[in-house]
């Protein structure tokens, strides 16, 4: 394929490197970064673009994107004119303008390498030590960008709308609960075109419904994400979604976190026979008669209200009390 900016025409390779040995921090085999990328991005000519490639890591490692180099790109190294890469967010920033040496309807190749780095020093396979500056995996991403013109403005592209979780937000769920999350998108001001795809990147057990139109809103389409969580899922999980419309324009990704916590009642925090009830990582204790406190740890002092009259002496019991009356007085409270 002939590419713009005089690039292309030569061979290059795609090589993935992953260390699959068991990690000391998770006690599981190391996993590689995952990405939500397209084969071709259609980026409107004569516009400013900030193309974010969603990347997640199943182990919670720090993920960084780099321009591919050497044999990993060869003829397409640095083939996107004037582009710069934010390595921490994996965002490519460029102007698809003639002034920046772009041409209308031309193809441009992009070759990136994704690497993951542990948050703290860990060992792999029980021996090899890896620090936060050591890469654990090397995963290539290669795709094309085409620069067509569209009869709409640069910002008229798919966008996520309510009830989609906010970008960067956290959904807190307790293990063994079933998650149901809706992601919805419309086409901004470009009402003549529909959303054709909502792609979702997330945990392997996250199920996606088919794309449907919101019956209450014109030109709004949605997917339902469902996950029947287990105790093995406890931890932080990143989900990213991306919408594409009939013009093949891609909107900004929407990424959020699902935090799955263990059932706090499993540790039996409630004392003295109290009943524990949990929800979303929090718990409440329903105390049996005679006890109080957050975990029912306090024996209620029934003598505190001084129920014994006429110099009677009060002795506290569980959910009860007894009065020892002085001579001449009787009944429960020494009243007569």
From TrEMBL:
<feature type="disulfide bond">
    <location>
        <begin position="325"/>
        <end position="334"/>
    </location>
</feature>
<dbReference type="GO" id="GO:0005509">
    <property type="term" value="F:calcium ion binding"/>
</dbReference>
<protein>
    <recommendedName>
        <fullName>EGF-like domain-containing protein</fullName>
    </recommendedName>
</protein>
<feature type="domain" description="EGF-like">
    <location>
        <begin position="261"/>
        <end position="297"/>
    </location>
</feature>
<dbReference type="InterPro" id="IPR000152">
    <property type="entry name" value="EGF-type_Asp/Asn_hydroxyl_site"/>
</dbReference>
<keyword id="KW-1015">Disulfide bond</keyword>
<keyword id="KW-0677">Repeat</keyword>
<dbReference type="InterPro" id="IPR001881">
    <property type="entry name" value="EGF-like_Ca-bd_dom"/>
</dbReference>
<keyword id="KW-0325">Glycoprotein</keyword>
<keyword id="KW-0106">Calcium</keyword>
<keyword id="KW-0245">EGF-like domain</keyword>
<feature type="disulfide bond">
    <location>
        <begin position="287"/>
        <end position="296"/>
    </location>
</feature>
<dbReference type="InterPro" id="IPR018097">
    <property type="entry name" value="EGF_Ca-bd_CS"/>
</dbReference>
<keyword id="KW-0964">Secreted</keyword>
<dbReference type="Pfam" id="PF00008">
    <property type="entry name" value="EGF"/>
</dbReference>
<feature type="domain" description="EGF-like">
    <location>
        <begin position="299"/>
        <end position="335"/>
    </location>
</feature>
<dbReference type="InterPro" id="IPR000742">
    <property type="entry name" value="EGF"/>
</dbReference>
<keyword id="KW-0732">Signal</keyword>
<dbReference type="GO" id="GO:0005576">
    <property type="term" value="C:extracellular region"/>
</dbReference>
